[in-house]
Amino acid sequence: MSMRIDIITVLPELLKSPFEASILKRAIEKGLVEVHLHNLRDYATGNYKQVDDYQFGGGAGMVMMIEPIDKCISELKAQRDYDDVIYMTPDGNTLNQKMANELSLKENLIILCGHYKGVDQRVRDMFVTREISIGDYVLSGGELAAAIVCDAVIRLLPGVLNDETSALTDTFQDNLLAPPVFTRPAEYKGKEVPKILLSGNTPEIEKWREQQSLQRTQERRPDLLE
Ligand code: 6GU
Asked: Does residue 218 surpass a pLDDT of 60?
């Protein structure tokens, strides 16, 4: 079973490169996920292909219009069922590993990227099933945030990672930060790798890593342990 993600955006250019490089590209090539970009302007009507307009009640900033978004979403929904219509917005639920895990179990997702002052509230009321933010800061649009959601989700799909177990030892997978890692050389400019890692004593190494994870989490992210 493969996942399909349809991304609706006014800036498809901004979203191309993440899917043409690295593990996302490989996941697509392996047929584990399909990502389709839809330019909202293609669904706009009228001579000006307008996708945004002034807000009722006045105030600075444009609002994304409902009609082109309705057209695009309706066209997609006519072709298949979607598990979720996600709206990328700074006032959404903050993305975390649990949410990425949940989304990785879905089959078909629509991701709508917000821009300007956002979308007409009726879009959210009528079509959106999930609203996601990637953190407490403001981006100029939802595109980069959508790329981050896609990366976090796609790398969890079975067969995407080479070492199938490596997602399990990620920072956050068990609410713990990952332990420090080292590779050759065993000594660099007088700075040595912890002796235990060179010992070959796997159970002791595992114990050390767990203890380092816990210590790191206590020091850096005590909130994760609550
Ligand atoms: Cl999803 N969109 C925008 N525009 N800004 C954000 C965000 C999303 N998440 C955090 N900041």
From this structure: yes
The closest alpha carbon to 115, from 17, 18, 36, 12, belongs to: 12
What's the confidence (pLDDT) of residue 164?
56
Closest ligand 1 atom to residue 135 Cα is 10
Q: What is the mean pLDDT of residues 182-186?
A: 98
Domain end position, chosen among 129, 154, 179: 154
* 90 Cβ inside 6 Å of ligand 1: yes
CA distances (Å), origin 160, targets 3, 72, 103, 133, 171: 12, 29, 15, 25, 18
As for how many domains the chain has, the answer is: 2
Distance from the CA of 146 to the center of ligand 1, in angstroms?
9
Q: Is the CB of 134 under 6 A from ligand 1?
A: yes
The ligand 1 atom at the shortest distance from the C-alpha of residue 140 is 4
